[in-house]
Amino acid sequence: MLEIKFVIQNLSLVQEVLSLRGETADLKSLASCDAKRRDILLEIEALRHRRNKVSEHIAIMKKEGEDTENFVNEMRKVSGQIKNLEKILTEMEEKVKNILIGLPNIPHASVPAGKDSSENKTIKQVGKCPDFGFEPKPHWSLGESLGIFDFDRASRITGARFPLYFGAGARLERALINFMLDIHTTEHGYKETLPPFIVNRQSMTNTGQLPKFEEDLFKLEGWDYFLIPTAEVPVTNIHQGEILNEDLLPIMYVAYTPCFRSEAGSYGKDTRGLIRQHQFNKVELVKFARPETSYDELEKLLNDAETILKRLELPYQVISLCTGDLGFSAAKTYDIEVWMPAQDVYREISSCSNFESFQARRANIRFRRKGKKGTELVHTLNGSGLAVGRTVAAMLENFQQPDGSVIIPEALQPYMKTSSIQKEKKT
RNA sequence: GGAGAGAUGGCCGAGCUGGCUGAAGGCGCUCGCCUGCUAAGCGAGUGUGGGGUGAAAGCUCCACCGAGGGUUCGAAUCCCUCUCUCUCCGCCA
């Protein structure tokens, strides 16, 4: 959420951002409702002041046995007026809030301008794309023939877009999760956390998934709860409503969770393989930072995510999302895209964003500066470190051998307890 | 699922026969004093959000005692609904 004052004072800037992102909002009525809200508030406060004073006076008169009826009658009227005005005030506040909560974040100055993903800027490419002496196979057929995943059975258990792993496949997911958690906790200084996988409406609203993107979520029937689409939601909400100790900043968490996404509107896209599933595993990095260091923290976070790809010897590129491709809550986002040789494309495997105070304002996460009065909103950041299913897909494709087996990179071998994946016996 | 207890400031904890209580007391924290050092001690200050005014410091007003409603001239205190926490019983991984 943006600050109301900021929006009112920068209507044209906000309008511009909206059109850059291809969105609309009723900024005119936002301005008029806010003006009305302030007028009424002023009036209410004056009346309340009067009521407080007179009520105090009535108390004293009563003690001295004086007749208070005139005052009581007057105050009865004043209270009625206040009640009526409060009704209008609440109405105005709701209107303002409804518009405000639907406004996306303002992109940072360093974000490239552009209308869609075609105008994203490539920052760098790292690692060497493998040169096979044969036609590389897509990960789904590799995985199926190795017997390490089984999409047919998964669709019978649940439906389309659910994973079912066996043997080395299941082990590879688990190994990657542990590998990633270990690096981020022991080398990068993140604190491990294991949050709830189901959250309430407030938490979803705080991080920006709601109210606009409810169709992307799985909702629990009979409860106002949702399956998390990313650990960002429960982990960012750990500190909702808190005033953090300045000395603790930046607070850095790493969490493994499964993620659940309805993938509404992506019918027919990436129907095969592990790329787009309703359920997938992810290791997520989340930071709470001082505003003045948040962009340095974003670079570090990106670097922390990149480390995983480097250790796994996977080729990738980093892109900076342009204004038109930026997510709703983000002020700046880097995507890391891993090389998928069978499809001859880079695919997103991590998304690292700085939300500045956008989420913190919604979730009311603040800190106090030493020697300064008042509080200040923190900046929140997060990034995948990494999406596990897509890492499995990339490993299969990049490390496949002519005989259909897959080599395990050295760094992961202690976790896999093997140096290659061979065909599983089918059950 | 049944029965009961509770939710107050950064923390602990009074108040809850309605009226100088934004809230006692303690702890913590900040500044000052004292002390050879540490500990202790002494003094002062210390919630959040919003509005008005002011260059600023400040002054001033309004709201907030889990959330939302109600009663009343007036609610932390009374009533209703909800949420959460704890204890006991039952059930269960």
Structure, described:
By secondary structure, the protein is α+β, with helices and mostly antiparallel strands. Helices cover 40% and strands 19% of the residues. The chain has 13 helices and 15 strands. Strands 1-8-9-10-13-7-6-2 form an 8-stranded mixed beta sheet. A 3-stranded mixed beta sheet has the order 5-11-12, with no helix packed on it. Helix 3 runs antiparallel to helix 4 (69-100), helix 5 (139-146) packs across helix 12 and helix 7 packs across helix 12 (388-398). The two termini are 52 Å apart.
Query: Tally of extended strands?
Result: 15
Query: Strand share of the residues?
Result: 15-25%
Largest sheet composition: 8 strands, mixed
Categorize the overall geometry: elongated
Give start-end ranges of low-pLDDT stretches.
Answer: none
Q: How many H/I helical runs?
A: 13
**Secondary-structure element series:** HHHHEHHHEEHEHEEEHEEEHEEEHEHE
Distance between the termini: 52 Å
- Estimated radius of gyration: 27 Å
- The amount of helix comes to 40-55%
